[in-house]
Write a structure and sequence with these properties.
This protein has ten helices and ten strands. It is an alpha/beta fold. The strands form two sheets. Strands 1-4-3-2-5-6-10 form a seven-stranded parallel beta sheet, with helices on both faces. Helix 7 links the parallel strand 5 (143-147) and strand 6. Bound molecules: adenosine monophosphate.
Amino acid sequence: MRLIRSLDEVRRFSHQVRGQGRSLGLVPTMGALHEGHLSLVRKARNECVSVVVSIFVNPTQFGPREDLSRYPRNLERDLGLLTPFKIDAVFAPDAGAMYLSGFDTFVDPGAVAQPLEGALRPGHFRGVATVVLKLLNLVQPSVAYFGQKDFQQAMVIRRLIEDFNLDVRLALCPIVREPDGLAMSSRNAYLSAEERVAALALFRALQRADAAFCRAETRTEAMVDEMKSVIASEPSLRLDYAVVSEAQTLAPPAVVTAGAVALIAARVGSTRLLDNLIMAPQGTNDEDRLRLALPARNSKLETRNSEAGS
Ligand code: AMP
């Protein structure tokens, strides 16, 4: 496994791989890796001949009052976690190399980036879309792996790929959870023991919405009320939003049908937590829920395990 720091070197590496006709998977991360990230790496490893994991805490997606400076960074530990996967390279550029002085061009994502995280974190998706486009241009992967955990981010990237005619397939992977249901996140490291208990209410709220859907509830407001009542039972949680949205646009659906997504964000102490769940008939597994939300037909989006790089 090579550690690549320079932009020129990752370009040369990519040329070499693609020149040999090998499929190349890219897993973009901000490091502080956990089992959620590793599920993406595993899927990339299974589907692609060559795999690059990028580790880059992207300054342009953090607001001025956000946690850029305290975001957990531990490259040595991350490299240790990646070693068993026998990936080809870790690309870990410096912020100064990614954003040379004078850098002044950004991607401006449209409607799907406006509500929810976009409304609460102005400029966030502009930074995300910009760095993802830069990474895709540098690494030129055949497949890029993202997590359902950041559902709105995945929809922004889906539009970016389609709208800019990028020659890459987007692969989405289900949310990996702790045994008690908490969605894994690098930011969970900030939580105290009490905050971590309170954080469990996010998944409980999503499960309540799903249970309502399984009882044939189709009214958005009724499902949102259910979610809000669960969050209200944890006084230390401050709800940012609880919604049920149409998956690809994140617009509110007239009636909730299978494949709609319940999304929730709340703060506990100084930590923001995100989670989501795709509504589906009882017993539907996570991969099938993703397929309900984002049918692969007519799209570069692919959620099923398949041969890559063709
Ligand atoms: P981050 O390092 O937070 O930028 O995340 C890198 C990628 O890992 C993103 O595509 C995330 O959606 C994904 N990811 C983060 N947490 C999880 C999780 N618990 N399960 C699955 N994917 C995740």
